[in-house]
Each structure stands twice: as C-alpha cells, then as structure tokens.
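Subject: sequence -> structure tokens, single chain

Hey, anyone have a minute? Need the predicted structure for the following. Not urgent.
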Amino acid sequence: MRCFIGFFGITRSLRHTAASIRSGFYEPLRQAGVTTARVGHFNLPQVISNPRSGEMDIVPDRAESTLLDLDLCWVEPQSDTAIAAEFDVARGFPDRFGDGYRSLANLCHQLRSLERVWSMLQLLGVTETDLVLLLRPDLLYLDRLDPAEHLAPLLDGRTDMIVPGWQSWGGLNDRFAFCTAASAKLYATRARAFSDACRAMGGMHAETFLHFTAARHGLRVGHTDLRAVRVRADGRVAANDAAMLAAARAEGRGMLDRSTGPDEHLNSRRPSTLADTIALDRWPGPSRPSGSAGAASPERASREDHTTSGGRPDGLYGGSGANRSSPSDTRSGSDRSSRASRPAPSDNASGPSHDRDMQPSGQAAEAG
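Reply:
Had a minute. Here:
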C-alpha cells in the first residue's frame, strides 16, 4: 500500500505543529511499513492580520514548509486575482458567515490550494489503489494515527472518505480528510462545482459544500474521532478549540518524551494524544535535526515565485523525504461509516466556526 500526504492552505504555525504531524502521521505510517510520498501547496500572504484572532501584522515565513520534509513543495504568493471567478459567484448570494465575505474569500483560496495539491499528487503518480491524507499544516494534531484502525474502512471498501466527526456545523468537517484516490480527487477539486453548489445551497458555506460534494457523487463518508486544533501564527490556540485541547491534556496520555527531542517518537505509554505536553505559550517549536531528509536549501527556499521558461513555477521544488519501511501491522480496525446523505452529527449548537485561512491580496490575510 502507498499513502500520499497532501498539505494545503498556509503554514503560519508549523514551528508549533510540525512535531505533532511527524509523530502523529509520519512515524505511525513508517512503523506500519507504509510507503509514503508527501506534497504541499501553500499560499503566501504578504502579512497575516486579524483583529478577531489577535494576529496582527505577522509576516509569514516562506521557508517554514521545510519542517514538513516534503517530496514536492509549492509556495505561491497569494493573489485575489486567482480566485476572482469563484469570489464573484459567492458575492451573488447572501454572506453565510456574516463577515463581509472575508471568510468566503478565504475559502476560495483554500479550495484553490487543494486543487494545486491534486495536480502535484498527479505529478508523483497517484493511482486508484493509493490512499491520500489531506491535512492542514496549521493544526496541532492531538491524537496519533493508527493506520490499521483508522485507515481500515478505506482499505476494505467500507468508506470512500473519512473526515472528523466533530465541529461539522451542519455539513462535513473540512479540516482534514483520509481518502481513496478517487474521493481525494473529488475532495481536492470540488471548486469546479462551486457555482452549482452556490445555486443548490442558496449561497456558500464550507462544511455544507463538502457535504454537497459527497452527496452529489454518492461517496460513503466515515467519521474519525482523531482531534486537531488550529494554532495561530503567534502560537495561540483558536478560542473555540480550547475546550478540545483542554480535554486532550486532561487525558494525560501519549506524552512526547522531551528528553529525546520533539522529533523522536513517543514514550513507552500508549501514544494516543500529544496535546498534554505541548504548552503553546512556552513551546519553542521543533528543532530540525541535523541532516534531516527533505531539507530545502536556503537558495531554494528564498527564490522568487514565477514561471520559468519550462512552464514550471520556481516556487515548486522537490525534496527528498525519507520513506523507511518496517513490517506491516496486520491488525484490523473499524471506524464509523455513513452515507453522505445521512444527517450530519449534532454538534452544531454553537454555529459555524467561521474558520477560513486566507484573504485576497488586496487585504491583510485573515487567519481563521
């Protein structure tokens, strides 16, 4: 089995989240003997500034993506021109987020980033027999993936796509997804149905749009209880994710062994949650080990983004992420599975999160 990992969005807080990604995804897949390939497309706003979240005039670090040890990476300046068509459609309907269409603009940028990720996966030769994990890089992942358990519904054909079972806001949570290759394509390219969805839904809303996509294509959708919280550019956790982080810390399981450094795998206790050791108000961020695979050179990380004579953006570069294998864990597992037409989980009392990550370049980027 091959597993492709695709990162999308903006990297704003990887110094805080990269360790949880390596310990929560890279290491379990390696231990299970799964061959992986990792790609990422990241929008690069000039500045991140959002009074609501408290992020003010923060200049993102374009080299931060090197912390992910990617095989292929594309860092692209964020431009409102690139989303003009979708944004114009969205503005023809009521603003479902109620923030002057800022969140809808951010959603358009995220959807475009996902489309770029799919094109990169195709460059690396993804096939219908592969699995694809689509992850946001600005999430602190609180639980450790167990491939035998969490990916089993995809491998045995019970589901086409697995999404978080929490914060669905009347649709399907779109913060990360585990997919078959076929459903990954539909997930990552759903912007192609943006206009149809707006007309069908009477406007645009992120979680509802993902539900619309799954229902339209008859995808079998499963839910996972793996948790993740958004981390701001200044290292703080999003306010409406604080309760989830507190609950994970209270469980007191799966502590990172700091004596071996943040890049080493978990200690001898059952590695279930990473949150209880990462105090974001004092966590220094992961230190990249000397000689780590996939490191981009300073020259590569700082080059200007433009299209070369060969038609390949200079912002797109290859890494050398190591994919070491060990004997596969053959245990079986299960997940909750449902048709996309089934009512969404009843976790919507507090309303939508209004969490979108990018802003047209004419304004400062809102980091949701």
